[in-house]
Amino acid sequence: MPIKLYNTLTRKKEEFRPRKKGKANIYTCGPTVYWYQHIGNLRSYIFSDILKKVLSYNHFKTRQVMNVTDVGHLTSDADTGKDKIEEAARKEGKNAQEIADYYLNIFKKDLKKLNISKPDIWAKATDHIKEQIELIKKLEKKGFTYKTKDGLYFDTSKLKDYGKLARLNIKGLKAGKRISIREKKNKTDFALWKFSEKPGTRQQEWNSHWGVGFPGWHIECSAMSIKYLGEQFDIHTGGEDHISVHHTNEIAQSESATGKKPWVKYWLHGAFLVFRGEKVSKSKGGLYTLSQLEKQNFESLSYRYLCLNTHYKKRLEFSIKSLESAQNTFNKLKNIITELKTKKDSKGNTKEYREKFLNAINDDLNIPKALGIFWNALKDKNLGSRQKYELALEFDKIFGLSLKELKSQTPQTIPKEIQQLAEQRQKARAQKDFTASDKLRKKLQSLGYTIEDTKKGPFVKKI
Ligand code: AMP
Ligand code: ZN
Q1: Is 31 in the pocket of ligand 1 (CB under 6 A)?
Q2: Cβ neighbours of 318 (radius 10 Å)
Q3: Architecture category of domain 285-405 in CATH
Q4: Ligand 2 centroid vs 65 CA: distance in angstroms?
Q5: SS3 of 16, please?
Q6: How do the domains of the chain map onto residue ranges?
Q7: pTM score of the predicted model
Q8: Tens digits of per-residue pLDDT, 43-100?
Q9: What SS3 state is found at 10?
Q10: Residue to substitute in 39, 44, 110, 317 for testing ligand 1 pocket (most ligand atoms within 8 angstroms of CB)
């Protein structure tokens, strides 16, 4: 059965046909490591993880490269402002590399907690300065660049199809030239190499024949993807915010340097996590990190469970309430699975469920639908415990909820009323209503149950 993916480039759902049979080469725009990744950032990596898992489930051999931006990302996407890493280093009194290593490490731990599988290759921008300079030289030779006081720029007017990914209205942009573009020839032109304002004052700078400086933000992704995946490859992923500037510029650089089109066959973009209608963004403080949610007694995987309930192309409105409800449903699911594991009854056929499941995940990663199919199977009276458990393990190859690792010594034959009381107590705690939560704990005790607040969330036991 074919996999269909929504391609931002064509604005259509298309059958996935890789360049090389049986292989899927993927480049994922990774984190800028000057601060913690917030749960919005993490949503976009849950999406690329699901993509990889669906491809593997369909027997494609995936190869994923993820970049780590540790230089060159300025506070404004228009090549102005301060370098985010240098700025963080100054504020925290550390050096730039310490900052990058520290936040990258935390990011890697978060990926693990969320069962997001590692990329095959981590590519740090500062480890690939030579490759970036080489690519810029190619662009220079072909006449796509010009120099200004503050850097070397890409001349976007040299490309007929500049802006095709975002369907930018270039004429409209030209008409609106009132916005200051400094020495740039066109508003959409972007920096390939920025000069250090005063050489010797930045922590991260390199020599080049254009002058001492550092690479522009976009060039790293072109240089590193071409290095590891070739001049043309299958899939590029990122958040929806990257369509109009970052990915548009990546395409311009890569296709101009190699002369090969298309550079990337399928462009996939994950929608934002929003809070009270606004994009969750690092520069505005970032809402929650995963560790902050853990401190509120949520399991990391409950956040993954929450994300599975919304299609990756739909914005997800986050609230603590919705996370609580995800945690409760996830707890119920785990209880059901641990119970199924101990039972031996067997009846019915899983074929239909498997087919429906495959249809859903291959239809542009429709995970919410796949989850619904899974819950229907669990409730199906015509299926035995063995069949249900088997399906759980099979489907969890995509969901990534560690259902196989659930311990069978936690036979949660906890009555529904008790479970409900425990959930009410968890809500009270999350709302910091400790009087109510204490009352509920006492009530549970009087009914013969106790609650332990473990790292993985509250755990109800018979006394
Ligand atoms: P950054 O570290 O800022 O470069 O962002 C890392 C990734 O997170 C990029 O793919 C962004 O598009 C994505 N991203 C940023 N904010 C959000 C958000 N609120 N929801 C989902 N993805 C986001
Ligand atoms: Zn990128």
Answers
A1: yes
A2: 22
A3: Up-down Bundle (1.20)
A4: 11
A5: coil
A6: 4-270, 285-405, 416-462
A7: 0.88
A8: 999 999 999 999 999 999 999 999 999 997 888 777 778 888 989 988 999 999 999 9
A9: coil
A10: 44
